[in-house]
Amino acid sequence: MESDKEILVEYHQKYAAAKKRTCILVTAIVTAIVLIVAAVCTLGVYFGVYYSPENDKAPIKPTSLMGQSCSDPCIFNLVEKTIEIASYYWTLNGQDLPFHDNSSWEGESILETLISSGRDKKIKIKIVQNKPKGRNNNTESLAKYAGAEVRTLDFDKLLGAGIIHTKMWLIDRKHFYVGSANLDWRSYTQVKELGAVIYNCPCMAKDMGKLFDVYWYLGAPGATVPSSWPSSYNTDINSNTSMQIQYNGTAATTYLSSSPPPFCPNGRTVDIDAIVDVIHKADKFVYIAVMDYFPTTQFSRPRKYWPVIDDALRRAAFDRRISVKLLISYWNNTWEEMPLYLKSLNILKYSDYGVHTNIEVRMFVVPAFTESQKKIPFARVNHNKYMVTDKTAYIGTSNWSGDYFIDTGGIGLIVNQNVTAEPGNVRKQLEDIFYRDWDSQYSTNIDHFNFTTKRHTEL
Length: 459
What we know:
There is one protein chain. Helix 10 links the parallel strand 16 and strand 17. Helices cover about 25% and strands about 25% of the residues. It is α/β, with parallel strands linked by helices. Keywords: Hydrolase, Membrane, Transmembrane, Transmembrane helix. This is PLD3_4.
């Protein structure tokens, strides 16, 4: 199996003539799945798909999927000047456990790469993190040994509640990652992740940079959320004026969304608006894979009913006869009430009163195959946060409940493409990934799933 470095060498050799004008989008499950595609201005390029976690034995459909995790994420191999990272938390070296687990080596490798980038290559590193509950040894080490500048977002002071749940890597303002993977060693071997990496595309990376700049501004000492953001933070790339791009020679339009609304300068599409827009524009189907799904808030007190996504899905199924499938995670920390909301969706398909809705909910379990895997907390879970329709691929960083869109930092990547069987089509590849999991032995219809009482701890 080719390594990430070998893949990059092949790309540069095969497409050297187009290098200066080619943007490459890699939709990745960093430890999970990566789709590499060409963007703005030109030609199709090599693409590959990766998945995890360890011992994932789901059958692969006859597409370009390859079973391999990113041991040395290729995005860091391209850095020349800057690395900018926005993250929820950092546990890359496995020291958060009272015992050592060998699967932490991939996270440790990433931490070592970051330290050597700053220390040896003199790369400028900027990090925005959520306010840690205790010490954050990883970012302290990066500040001490790699010269990283670290800023912390205190959402209690900025908004009264919330966290930064974003997972963003931005390299030289040319390449970036967005997706479900935290800066946690488990994300590379023990948790099923999905995200997007975009290579050599300064047009979109510049827009991603504006999202990072918002976080950086708010992480400054004494910062407050401005009533009106300075014009330098504004964007022209949104749901109304998406950027026209070609992925592997296949036409598409794309933009980035953000939450919460106060973090969205002029022109930025709010994340929840992007999600609802994708649902509303579907003609045939809406397929969703997320860890948590609640038509309520979860962490605010008092909790509130928040049916924004739920209403959009019911209307799509009821009014337009759209096929809706939800693949929701079940693990040791699932809230016991979540199945009640999901069953209220699933039951609509059984109506005998002339209402022919096509909604199906399945629960997805990532089992522990070894005793060592069973011992690892906050692991063996499908941590995905994506949606695919017959027109659009959406890849985000937020769980689907009200808090994540009201007062939590998160972002989304939206790719609009028509239905096509061309191998470079990002939307079609995401659809194949969805069906890979939907049809696997890890997926069970909610009506036949054996629930047990669990408690939830946020991931």
